[in-house]
Amino acid sequence: MADTVENLVLDLLEWVEREERTYQETMDAWRTSCPKLPIWENASDGGLVKVVSVDGRSLVRLTPAGLDLLKEQKRHSP
Fold first, then answer.
1. What CATH number corresponds to the domain at position 40?
2. Is 73 domain-assigned?
3. Residue 61's pLDDT band (boundaries 50, 70, 90)?
4. Which of the 8 DSSP states describes residue 29?
């Protein structure tokens, strides 16, 4: 199950990187009540994403650690 969660965290990071995402949009798409799939929680607790306020909107952004993880993953992808 750990590999599944790690892969889904990477999917979340790629999804956030593609375009500007609001916190609400991110929660609608990625929050889960399943304790075995804590995707948002793992990304947030791991310091891979952060919520920032821009012009009164809460936006989700990748942290430097999140960007580094994506770069590393892309280097190892076929």
1. 1.10.10.10
2. no
3. very high
4. H
Are 6 and 50 in contact, with CB atoms under 8 Å apart?
no
Return the beta strands (E) in 1-78 as ranges.
Answer: 21-22, 49-54, 57-62
78 within some domain: no
Output the average pLDDT for the chain: 90
Whole domain around residue 46: which residue ranges?
2-67
The band of 32, judged by pLDDT with boundaries at 50, 70 and 90, is confident
Q: Return the sign of the alpha-carbon dihedral for residues 61, 11, 30, 20.
A: positive
Q: Which pair of tokens denotes residue 43?
A: 């990304």
